[in-house]
Amino acid sequence: MPRRTAHAAPALTPTDEKITLNLGYVDLGQIDLLVQEGFYANRSDFIRTAIRQHLGSHAEAVRQVVLRKTLVLGIQHYSAADLQAVQAAGQQLQIRVLGLASLAADVTPELALATIESLTVLGALRASSEVKHALAGRIRYS
């Protein structure tokens, strides 16, 4: 098997979410060996690569579920102006996101309550703690 040239791991971007996981000592040792031999830059590089490969093997299943559940795939951002337009139209949103749902810093808890009927997130939700608290009964992390 050809050796992979080690490279610097990409820095976290605003769209990344940090996770913690527990691994057995043998698995961790094998990862460290591959890093030491230059196949991966570091443990995180190995884990990101493994996750991408595994998700790639299930890409069709994910696509079908996204279509069936009418999920937005990727990043869905709402500003106060977006929600004010929804409120002016007398409507409420049922937000369903696979990825990142983001409510801007200028969204108040009152505006969120008036315009967001439900919020289903498979991934991460970025919003102020006040807005998250206000919407707590309407948020589902699946």
UniProtKB/TrEMBL annotation:
Origin superkingdom: Bacteria
PANTHER family tied to this protein: BLL4998 PROTEIN
Name this protein carries in UniProt: CopG family transcriptional regulator
Species the sequence originates in: Ideonella azotifigens
Organism lineage: Bacteria, Pseudomonadati, Pseudomonadota, Betaproteobacteria, Burkholderiales
